[in-house]
Amino acid sequence: MRPQGLCALLLCASAAAQTAPPLPSALDTITASRLRGHVSFLASDLLEGRDTPSRGLDIAAEYLASQFRAFDLEPLGDNGYFQTINWTIIESAPTGITLSLDGAPVDPKHFRVTAGANAIDAEGDIAEVKSSETAGRIVRLADANRATVMDALRILRNSPPQVVLIPDERDTLNASGAFQPRALVTPYDPPRGNYVYVLCTGPAAALAKSAKTAQFHMPAGTTTPARLWNVAALLRGSDPTLAATAVIVSAHYDHEGLRPNNPRDQVMNGANDDASGVAAMLETARALAALPQRPKRSILFLGLVGEEKGLLGSKHYARNPLWPLDKTVANLNLEMFGRTEEGEYTRAGQMTITGSGFSTVTDFVRQATLDLGGIYFINRQGNEEFFARSDNFPLAMAGIPAHSLTPGFSFQDYHAPGDEWPKLDYDNMQRATRIAALAALRLAENDTAPEWDLNDPTAKKFAERRKPAAAPPPASTQPNLPQ
Ligand SMILES: [Zn+2]
After folding, report:
1. How far is the CA of 222 from the centre of ligand 1 (A)?
2. Which of 86, 93, 121, 242 could form an S-S bond across to 296 if both were Cys, CB 3.0 to 4.6 Å?
3. What is the pLDDT at residue 269?
Protein backbone atom coordinates (compact mmCIF):
# COMPACT_ATOMS: atom_id res chain seq x y z
CA MET A 1 0.00 0.00 0.00
CA ARG A 2 1.31 3.46 -0.90
CA PRO A 3 1.93 5.67 2.26
CA GLN A 4 -0.58 8.45 1.32
CA GLY A 5 -3.35 5.77 1.09
CA LEU A 6 -2.51 4.79 4.67
CA CYS A 7 -2.85 8.35 6.05
CA ALA A 8 -6.22 8.71 4.25
CA LEU A 9 -7.41 5.48 5.89
CA LEU A 10 -6.03 6.53 9.30
CA LEU A 11 -8.00 9.76 8.93
CA CYS A 12 -11.23 7.90 8.08
CA ALA A 13 -10.50 5.44 10.90
CA SER A 14 -10.43 8.18 13.57
CA ALA A 15 -13.53 9.96 12.12
CA ALA A 16 -15.45 6.66 12.13
CA ALA A 17 -14.30 5.91 15.69
CA GLN A 18 -15.97 9.15 16.82
CA THR A 19 -19.40 8.20 15.35
CA ALA A 20 -19.35 4.41 15.89
CA PRO A 21 -22.60 2.88 17.24
CA PRO A 22 -22.28 1.41 20.77
CA LEU A 23 -20.42 -1.89 20.57
CA PRO A 24 -21.77 -4.99 22.27
CA SER A 25 -19.97 -5.47 25.59
CA ALA A 26 -19.66 -9.17 24.75
CA LEU A 27 -16.74 -8.20 22.53
CA ASP A 28 -14.78 -7.12 25.60
CA THR A 29 -14.76 -10.70 26.81
CA ILE A 30 -12.61 -11.67 23.82
CA THR A 31 -9.13 -11.36 25.29
CA ALA A 32 -5.53 -12.01 24.37
CA SER A 33 -5.25 -14.57 27.19
CA ARG A 34 -8.18 -16.62 26.02
CA LEU A 35 -6.82 -16.62 22.47
CA ARG A 36 -3.39 -17.62 23.70
CA GLY A 37 -4.96 -20.46 25.65
CA HIS A 38 -6.55 -21.98 22.55
CA VAL A 39 -3.53 -21.53 20.27
CA SER A 40 -1.00 -22.89 22.75
CA PHE A 41 -2.98 -26.13 22.98
CA LEU A 42 -3.80 -26.56 19.29
CA ALA A 43 -0.26 -25.74 18.18
CA SER A 44 1.56 -27.71 20.87
CA ASP A 45 4.11 -30.28 19.72
CA LEU A 46 1.88 -32.99 21.21
CA LEU A 47 -0.66 -32.51 18.40
CA GLU A 48 2.20 -33.17 15.96
CA GLY A 49 1.16 -30.53 13.42
CA ARG A 50 -2.45 -31.78 12.97
CA ASP A 51 -1.88 -33.50 9.62
CA THR A 52 -4.92 -34.78 7.66
CA PRO A 53 -5.45 -37.54 8.82
CA SER A 54 -3.62 -38.01 12.10
CA ARG A 55 -4.24 -38.60 15.81
CA GLY A 56 -3.24 -35.00 16.57
CA LEU A 57 -5.92 -33.82 14.17
CA ASP A 58 -8.60 -35.87 15.94
CA ILE A 59 -7.51 -34.52 19.32
CA ALA A 60 -7.89 -31.00 17.93
CA ALA A 61 -11.39 -31.93 16.67
CA GLU A 62 -12.35 -33.16 20.14
CA TYR A 63 -11.04 -29.90 21.56
CA LEU A 64 -13.27 -27.86 19.23
CA ALA A 65 -16.28 -30.03 20.12
CA SER A 66 -15.57 -29.67 23.84
CA GLN A 67 -15.44 -25.88 23.48
CA PHE A 68 -18.70 -25.78 21.50
CA ARG A 69 -20.24 -27.95 24.22
CA ALA A 70 -18.99 -25.51 26.87
CA PHE A 71 -20.64 -22.63 24.95
CA ASP A 72 -23.93 -24.55 24.83
CA LEU A 73 -24.09 -24.46 21.05
CA GLU A 74 -26.24 -26.90 19.12
CA PRO A 75 -24.39 -29.82 17.54
CA LEU A 76 -25.02 -29.87 13.78
CA GLY A 77 -23.07 -32.92 12.65
CA ASP A 78 -24.26 -36.45 11.98
CA ASN A 79 -22.33 -37.49 15.10
CA GLY A 80 -22.81 -34.70 17.62
CA TYR A 81 -20.65 -31.80 16.47
CA PHE A 82 -18.84 -34.03 13.97
CA GLN A 83 -19.63 -34.17 10.25
CA THR A 84 -18.18 -37.58 9.45
CA ILE A 85 -16.14 -37.83 6.25
CA ASN A 86 -15.05 -41.22 4.95
CA TRP A 87 -12.07 -41.21 2.63
CA THR A 88 -9.26 -43.69 2.14
CA ILE A 89 -5.50 -43.83 2.59
CA ILE A 90 -3.31 -45.69 0.18
CA GLU A 91 0.17 -46.69 1.22
CA SER A 92 2.99 -48.29 -0.73
CA ALA A 93 4.51 -51.53 0.49
CA PRO A 94 7.16 -50.70 3.11
CA THR A 95 9.60 -53.32 1.76
CA GLY A 96 10.28 -55.44 -1.32
CA ILE A 97 10.50 -52.57 -3.83
CA THR A 98 13.37 -52.88 -6.32
CA LEU A 99 14.68 -50.69 -9.14
CA SER A 100 17.40 -51.42 -11.71
CA LEU A 101 18.75 -48.97 -14.29
CA ASP A 102 20.56 -50.39 -17.31
CA GLY A 103 20.57 -53.71 -15.47
CA ALA A 104 22.30 -52.31 -12.34
CA PRO A 105 20.27 -52.51 -9.08
CA VAL A 106 19.80 -49.09 -7.42
CA ASP A 107 20.49 -48.76 -3.70
CA PRO A 108 17.10 -48.34 -1.95
CA LYS A 109 18.67 -45.38 -0.06
CA HIS A 110 18.70 -43.48 -3.35
CA PHE A 111 15.11 -43.80 -4.48
CA ARG A 112 11.69 -43.22 -2.95
CA VAL A 113 8.30 -44.27 -4.23
CA THR A 114 5.05 -42.37 -3.93
CA ALA A 115 1.82 -43.93 -2.69
CA GLY A 116 0.46 -46.84 -4.72
CA ALA A 117 -1.85 -49.63 -3.59
CA ASN A 118 -1.41 -51.91 -6.60
CA ALA A 119 1.47 -54.29 -7.29
CA ILE A 120 3.62 -53.16 -10.24
CA ASP A 121 6.06 -55.12 -12.39
CA ALA A 122 7.46 -53.03 -15.22
CA GLU A 123 10.56 -53.28 -17.37
CA GLY A 124 11.82 -52.09 -20.74
CA ASP A 125 13.14 -49.06 -22.56
CA ILE A 126 12.60 -45.80 -20.74
CA ALA A 127 10.30 -43.39 -22.63
CA GLU A 128 10.50 -39.58 -22.42
CA VAL A 129 7.34 -38.05 -20.95
CA LYS A 130 6.86 -35.94 -24.06
CA SER A 131 6.76 -38.97 -26.37
CA SER A 132 3.31 -40.15 -27.31
CA GLU A 133 3.87 -43.74 -26.27
CA THR A 134 3.79 -43.53 -22.49
CA ALA A 135 0.80 -45.77 -21.73
CA GLY A 136 1.81 -48.73 -19.53
CA ARG A 137 5.53 -47.90 -19.79
CA ILE A 138 8.37 -46.61 -17.64
CA VAL A 139 8.83 -42.92 -18.41
CA ARG A 140 11.18 -40.25 -17.06
CA LEU A 141 10.91 -36.54 -16.39
CA ALA A 142 13.78 -34.23 -17.26
CA ASP A 143 14.02 -32.88 -13.69
CA ALA A 144 12.11 -32.34 -10.43
CA ASN A 145 11.13 -28.72 -11.05
CA ARG A 146 7.54 -27.90 -10.17
CA ALA A 147 6.76 -26.79 -13.74
CA THR A 148 8.13 -30.02 -15.22
CA VAL A 149 6.10 -32.11 -12.79
CA MET A 150 2.87 -30.13 -13.33
CA ASP A 151 3.33 -30.40 -17.10
CA ALA A 152 3.86 -34.13 -16.87
CA LEU A 153 0.74 -34.54 -14.73
CA ARG A 154 -1.39 -33.13 -17.53
CA ILE A 155 0.24 -35.29 -20.24
CA LEU A 156 0.30 -38.56 -18.30
CA ARG A 157 -3.32 -38.32 -17.24
CA ASN A 158 -4.31 -39.11 -20.84
CA SER A 159 -1.96 -42.05 -21.36
CA PRO A 160 -1.03 -43.34 -17.92
CA PRO A 161 2.35 -45.12 -17.63
CA GLN A 162 3.25 -47.67 -14.94
CA VAL A 163 6.22 -45.83 -13.46
CA VAL A 164 7.46 -42.23 -13.66
CA LEU A 165 11.17 -41.74 -12.89
CA ILE A 166 12.04 -38.30 -11.51
CA PRO A 167 15.74 -37.39 -11.25
CA ASP A 168 15.80 -35.39 -8.00
CA GLU A 169 19.43 -35.15 -6.94
CA ARG A 170 18.82 -32.94 -3.94
CA ASP A 171 15.59 -34.73 -2.91
CA THR A 172 13.71 -31.40 -3.22
CA LEU A 173 10.35 -33.14 -3.52
CA ASN A 174 10.85 -34.77 -0.15
CA ALA A 175 9.06 -31.92 1.63
CA SER A 176 6.06 -32.00 -0.67
CA GLY A 177 3.00 -33.80 0.67
CA ALA A 178 2.22 -35.01 -2.86
CA PHE A 179 5.31 -37.20 -3.05
CA GLN A 180 4.93 -39.34 0.06
CA PRO A 181 4.52 -43.14 0.25
CA ARG A 182 1.20 -42.56 2.00
CA ALA A 183 -1.64 -40.53 0.49
CA LEU A 184 -5.17 -39.53 1.28
CA VAL A 185 -7.60 -40.27 -1.55
CA THR A 186 -10.74 -38.16 -1.78
CA PRO A 187 -13.34 -37.44 -4.45
CA TYR A 188 -11.95 -33.91 -4.61
CA ASP A 189 -8.45 -34.76 -5.78
CA PRO A 190 -7.48 -34.98 -9.44
CA PRO A 191 -7.56 -38.68 -10.45
CA ARG A 192 -4.30 -40.37 -9.32
CA GLY A 193 -3.97 -42.99 -12.03
CA ASN A 194 -2.54 -46.40 -11.13
CA TYR A 195 1.08 -45.40 -11.53
CA VAL A 196 3.76 -44.32 -9.08
CA TYR A 197 6.52 -41.76 -9.11
CA VAL A 198 10.01 -43.00 -8.31
CA LEU A 199 12.18 -40.17 -7.02
CA CYS A 200 15.82 -40.94 -7.80
CA THR A 201 18.04 -39.04 -5.40
CA GLY A 202 21.78 -38.59 -4.92
CA PRO A 203 23.86 -40.68 -7.38
CA ALA A 204 20.74 -42.38 -8.75
CA ALA A 205 19.52 -39.07 -10.22
CA ALA A 206 22.22 -38.97 -12.88
CA LEU A 207 21.64 -42.64 -13.67
CA ALA A 208 17.91 -42.02 -14.08
CA LYS A 209 18.68 -39.21 -16.53
CA SER A 210 20.95 -41.29 -18.73
CA ALA A 211 19.74 -44.89 -18.46
CA LYS A 212 18.20 -46.59 -21.50
CA THR A 213 16.32 -49.38 -19.74
CA ALA A 214 14.78 -49.92 -16.33
CA GLN A 215 13.20 -52.65 -14.30
CA PHE A 216 10.84 -51.91 -11.39
CA HIS A 217 9.06 -54.21 -8.97
CA MET A 218 6.66 -53.23 -6.19
CA PRO A 219 4.46 -55.57 -4.13
CA ALA A 220 0.84 -54.52 -3.46
CA GLY A 221 0.42 -51.79 -0.90
CA THR A 222 -2.57 -51.14 1.35
CA THR A 223 -5.81 -49.20 1.19
CA THR A 224 -7.29 -48.29 4.55
CA PRO A 225 -10.33 -46.22 5.49
CA ALA A 226 -9.69 -42.72 6.85
CA ARG A 227 -12.45 -41.24 8.96
CA LEU A 228 -12.23 -37.47 9.29
CA TRP A 229 -14.36 -34.77 10.86
CA ASN A 230 -15.49 -31.29 10.03
CA VAL A 231 -16.72 -29.85 13.34
CA ALA A 232 -20.01 -27.90 13.25
CA ALA A 233 -21.98 -25.99 15.89
CA LEU A 234 -25.02 -23.74 15.62
CA LEU A 235 -26.11 -20.60 17.40
CA ARG A 236 -29.75 -20.66 16.36
CA GLY A 237 -31.18 -17.27 15.39
CA SER A 238 -33.96 -15.53 17.29
CA ASP A 239 -36.03 -14.07 14.44
CA PRO A 240 -38.95 -16.29 13.37
CA THR A 241 -38.10 -15.82 9.68
CA LEU A 242 -34.44 -14.88 9.49
CA ALA A 243 -33.37 -17.70 11.82
CA ALA A 244 -33.87 -20.04 8.87
CA THR A 245 -30.88 -18.35 7.26
CA ALA A 246 -27.31 -18.61 8.49
CA VAL A 247 -23.92 -16.92 8.44
CA ILE A 248 -20.96 -19.35 8.48
CA VAL A 249 -17.87 -18.48 10.52
CA SER A 250 -15.14 -20.98 9.65
CA ALA A 251 -11.46 -21.81 10.07
CA HIS A 252 -9.32 -24.82 9.21
CA TYR A 253 -7.95 -26.76 12.18
CA ASP A 254 -5.49 -28.91 10.22
CA HIS A 255 -1.91 -28.16 9.31
CA GLU A 256 1.03 -30.00 7.73
CA GLY A 257 1.96 -32.61 10.35
CA LEU A 258 5.54 -33.78 10.77
CA ARG A 259 8.76 -33.40 8.77
CA PRO A 260 10.65 -36.51 9.94
CA ASN A 261 13.72 -35.62 7.84
CA ASN A 262 14.16 -32.20 9.39
CA PRO A 263 16.97 -32.69 11.96
CA ARG A 264 16.24 -29.50 13.92
CA ASP A 265 12.45 -29.50 14.28
CA GLN A 266 10.06 -32.14 12.98
CA VAL A 267 6.76 -30.51 13.99
CA MET A 268 4.91 -28.13 11.66
CA ASN A 269 3.00 -26.52 14.55
CA GLY A 270 0.79 -24.26 12.42
CA ALA A 271 0.19 -21.76 15.24
CA ASN A 272 -0.62 -18.83 12.95
CA ASP A 273 -1.76 -21.09 10.09
CA ASP A 274 -4.37 -21.64 11.26
CA ALA A 275 -4.65 -22.40 14.98
CA SER A 276 -5.01 -18.62 15.32
CA GLY A 277 -8.06 -18.58 13.01
CA VAL A 278 -9.57 -21.47 14.96
CA ALA A 279 -9.02 -19.63 18.24
CA ALA A 280 -10.65 -16.52 16.76
CA MET A 281 -13.62 -18.63 15.62
CA LEU A 282 -13.96 -20.22 19.08
CA GLU A 283 -13.83 -16.87 20.85
CA THR A 284 -16.37 -15.41 18.41
CA ALA A 285 -18.65 -18.38 19.15
CA ARG A 286 -18.24 -18.04 22.92
CA ALA A 287 -18.86 -14.26 22.91
CA LEU A 288 -21.90 -14.35 20.60
CA ALA A 289 -23.41 -17.37 22.36
CA ALA A 290 -23.28 -15.36 25.60
CA LEU A 291 -25.24 -12.41 24.19
CA PRO A 292 -28.41 -11.68 26.17
CA GLN A 293 -30.35 -11.64 22.87
CA ARG A 294 -29.34 -14.05 20.12
CA PRO A 295 -28.84 -12.52 16.67
CA LYS A 296 -31.75 -12.68 14.24
CA ARG A 297 -30.07 -15.06 11.80
CA SER A 298 -28.42 -18.29 12.85
CA ILE A 299 -24.61 -18.54 12.94
CA LEU A 300 -22.87 -21.80 12.02
CA PHE A 301 -19.36 -22.23 13.43
CA LEU A 302 -17.33 -24.64 11.29
CA GLY A 303 -13.92 -26.19 11.95
CA LEU A 304 -12.64 -27.52 8.63
CA VAL A 305 -10.27 -30.34 7.87
CA GLY A 306 -7.79 -30.89 5.07
CA GLU A 307 -7.28 -27.29 3.94
CA GLU A 308 -3.56 -27.81 3.50
CA LYS A 309 -4.25 -30.77 1.21
CA GLY A 310 -6.42 -28.79 -1.19
CA LEU A 311 -9.40 -27.25 0.63
CA LEU A 312 -10.71 -30.80 1.16
CA GLY A 313 -12.97 -30.17 4.18
CA SER A 314 -14.61 -27.09 2.67
CA LYS A 315 -15.08 -28.82 -0.71
CA HIS A 316 -16.73 -31.67 1.17
CA TYR A 317 -18.93 -29.26 3.13
CA ALA A 318 -20.02 -27.39 -0.03
CA ARG A 319 -21.10 -30.75 -1.49
CA ASN A 320 -22.64 -32.00 1.77
CA PRO A 321 -23.94 -28.85 3.47
CA LEU A 322 -25.29 -29.11 7.02
CA TRP A 323 -27.40 -26.01 6.39
CA PRO A 324 -29.17 -25.39 3.07
CA LEU A 325 -26.80 -23.50 0.78
CA ASP A 326 -29.67 -21.39 -0.51
CA LYS A 327 -30.29 -20.32 3.08
CA THR A 328 -26.63 -19.55 3.76
CA VAL A 329 -26.16 -15.82 3.33
CA ALA A 330 -22.43 -15.33 3.94
CA ASN A 331 -19.17 -16.95 5.04
CA LEU A 332 -16.40 -15.32 7.08
CA ASN A 333 -13.38 -17.64 6.95
CA LEU A 334 -10.68 -16.72 9.48
CA GLU A 335 -7.05 -17.16 8.37
CA MET A 336 -3.76 -16.32 10.08
CA PHE A 337 -4.87 -13.90 12.80
CA GLY A 338 -1.72 -13.80 14.88
CA ARG A 339 1.38 -12.42 13.20
CA THR A 340 2.26 -8.76 12.70
CA GLU A 341 5.85 -8.71 11.46
CA GLU A 342 6.82 -5.61 9.57
CA GLY A 343 6.24 -6.16 5.91
CA GLU A 344 4.38 -4.55 3.05
CA TYR A 345 1.00 -5.50 4.42
CA THR A 346 1.40 -6.91 7.86
CA ARG A 347 1.03 -4.12 10.40
CA ALA A 348 -0.71 -4.01 13.78
CA GLY A 349 -4.34 -2.90 13.71
CA GLN A 350 -4.93 -3.84 10.08
CA MET A 351 -7.62 -6.10 8.66
CA THR A 352 -8.60 -7.11 5.17
CA ILE A 353 -10.61 -9.74 3.37
CA THR A 354 -9.76 -11.68 0.24
CA GLY A 355 -11.89 -10.65 -2.71
CA SER A 356 -12.37 -7.26 -1.13
CA GLY A 357 -15.14 -5.48 -3.04
CA PHE A 358 -16.56 -8.66 -4.58
CA SER A 359 -19.58 -8.49 -2.26
CA THR A 360 -21.17 -6.28 0.39
CA VAL A 361 -19.58 -8.47 3.08
CA THR A 362 -16.67 -6.07 2.50
CA ASP A 363 -18.68 -3.19 3.98
CA PHE A 364 -19.44 -5.14 7.15
CA VAL A 365 -15.79 -6.02 7.73
CA ARG A 366 -14.55 -2.55 6.83
CA GLN A 367 -17.04 -0.84 9.16
CA ALA A 368 -16.32 -3.23 12.03
CA THR A 369 -12.58 -2.58 11.56
CA LEU A 370 -13.07 1.18 11.65
CA ASP A 371 -15.50 1.03 14.60
CA LEU A 372 -12.84 -0.84 16.59
CA GLY A 373 -10.17 1.71 15.70
CA GLY A 374 -8.46 -0.49 13.12
CA ILE A 375 -7.22 0.12 9.59
CA TYR A 376 -8.95 -1.59 6.69
CA PHE A 377 -6.54 -2.29 3.81
CA ILE A 378 -6.69 -3.98 0.42
CA ASN A 379 -3.77 -6.13 -0.69
CA ARG A 380 -4.09 -5.33 -4.38
CA GLN A 381 -1.60 -8.06 -5.26
CA GLY A 382 -3.28 -10.88 -3.33
CA ASN A 383 -6.88 -9.73 -3.26
CA GLU A 384 -8.05 -11.97 -6.10
CA GLU A 385 -5.29 -14.61 -5.97
CA PHE A 386 -5.78 -15.45 -2.30
CA PHE A 387 -9.56 -15.50 -2.74
CA ALA A 388 -9.20 -18.90 -4.39
CA ARG A 389 -6.59 -20.22 -1.97
CA SER A 390 -8.57 -20.78 1.20
CA ASP A 391 -11.73 -22.38 2.51
CA ASN A 392 -14.05 -19.54 1.54
CA PHE A 393 -13.60 -20.54 -2.10
CA PRO A 394 -15.73 -23.71 -2.35
CA LEU A 395 -18.64 -21.78 -0.78
CA ALA A 396 -18.06 -18.86 -3.16
CA MET A 397 -18.16 -21.42 -5.98
CA ALA A 398 -21.62 -22.34 -4.67
CA GLY A 399 -22.60 -18.68 -5.07
CA ILE A 400 -22.40 -17.68 -1.39
CA PRO A 401 -20.64 -14.34 -0.60
CA ALA A 402 -17.67 -15.97 1.12
CA HIS A 403 -14.36 -14.32 2.01
CA SER A 404 -11.30 -14.99 4.13
CA LEU A 405 -10.49 -12.41 6.79
CA THR A 406 -6.87 -11.83 7.78
CA PRO A 407 -4.75 -9.10 9.40
CA GLY A 408 -1.84 -10.19 7.18
CA PHE A 409 -1.14 -12.53 4.30
CA SER A 410 2.56 -13.05 4.79
CA PHE A 411 4.71 -14.02 7.74
CA GLN A 412 8.22 -15.33 8.08
CA ASP A 413 7.46 -18.88 9.29
CA TYR A 414 4.72 -19.57 6.72
CA HIS A 415 4.55 -23.36 6.26
CA ALA A 416 7.69 -23.83 8.30
CA PRO A 417 8.43 -25.57 11.64
CA GLY A 418 8.97 -22.14 13.21
CA ASP A 419 5.27 -21.22 13.11
CA GLU A 420 4.95 -21.55 16.89
CA TRP A 421 2.48 -20.07 19.39
CA PRO A 422 4.87 -17.88 21.47
CA LYS A 423 5.59 -15.82 18.31
CA LEU A 424 2.02 -14.57 17.87
CA ASP A 425 0.92 -11.01 18.72
CA TYR A 426 -2.08 -11.77 20.95
CA ASP A 427 -2.91 -8.13 21.64
CA ASN A 428 -3.35 -7.50 17.93
CA MET A 429 -5.15 -10.83 17.59
CA GLN A 430 -7.59 -9.68 20.28
CA ARG A 431 -8.61 -6.69 18.16
CA ALA A 432 -8.69 -8.72 14.93
CA THR A 433 -10.96 -11.31 16.59
CA ARG A 434 -13.29 -8.63 17.94
CA ILE A 435 -13.52 -7.24 14.40
CA ALA A 436 -14.48 -10.66 13.04
CA ALA A 437 -17.04 -11.17 15.83
CA LEU A 438 -18.59 -7.76 15.27
CA ALA A 439 -18.82 -8.29 11.50
CA ALA A 440 -20.42 -11.72 12.02
CA LEU A 441 -22.90 -10.29 14.51
CA ARG A 442 -23.90 -7.42 12.23
CA LEU A 443 -24.30 -9.78 9.25
CA ALA A 444 -26.56 -11.96 11.40
CA GLU A 445 -28.54 -8.96 12.62
CA ASN A 446 -29.01 -7.39 9.20
CA ASP A 447 -32.42 -7.74 7.57
CA THR A 448 -30.94 -7.82 4.09
CA ALA A 449 -28.55 -10.54 3.05
CA PRO A 450 -25.19 -9.53 1.55
CA GLU A 451 -24.90 -9.50 -2.25
CA TRP A 452 -22.24 -9.91 -4.89
CA ASP A 453 -21.21 -6.81 -6.79
CA LEU A 454 -22.65 -7.49 -10.23
CA ASN A 455 -20.56 -4.67 -11.71
CA ASP A 456 -17.43 -6.62 -10.90
CA PRO A 457 -16.83 -9.22 -13.64
CA THR A 458 -15.17 -11.72 -11.28
CA ALA A 459 -17.84 -11.33 -8.59
CA LYS A 460 -20.59 -11.62 -11.21
CA LYS A 461 -19.37 -15.13 -12.07
CA PHE A 462 -19.85 -16.22 -8.47
CA ALA A 463 -23.26 -14.54 -8.28
CA GLU A 464 -24.35 -16.58 -11.30
CA ARG A 465 -23.49 -19.78 -9.44
CA ARG A 466 -26.00 -19.03 -6.71
CA LYS A 467 -28.97 -21.37 -6.86
CA PRO A 468 -32.20 -19.45 -6.39
CA ALA A 469 -33.82 -20.12 -3.00
CA ALA A 470 -36.20 -23.09 -3.40
CA ALA A 471 -39.74 -21.65 -3.73
CA PRO A 472 -42.12 -23.10 -1.13
CA PRO A 473 -44.36 -25.76 -2.77
CA PRO A 474 -47.71 -24.34 -4.05
CA ALA A 475 -50.47 -24.58 -1.41
CA SER A 476 -52.42 -27.23 -3.38
CA THR A 477 -49.67 -29.83 -3.14
CA GLN A 478 -49.20 -29.25 0.57
CA PRO A 479 -50.04 -32.50 2.36
CA ASN A 480 -52.90 -32.20 4.86
CA LEU A 481 -50.75 -32.05 7.92
CA PRO A 482 -52.59 -32.76 11.19
CA GLN A 483 -53.07 -29.39 12.88
ZN1 LIG B 1 -4.14 -21.76 6.34
Report:
1. 30
2. 242
3. 98
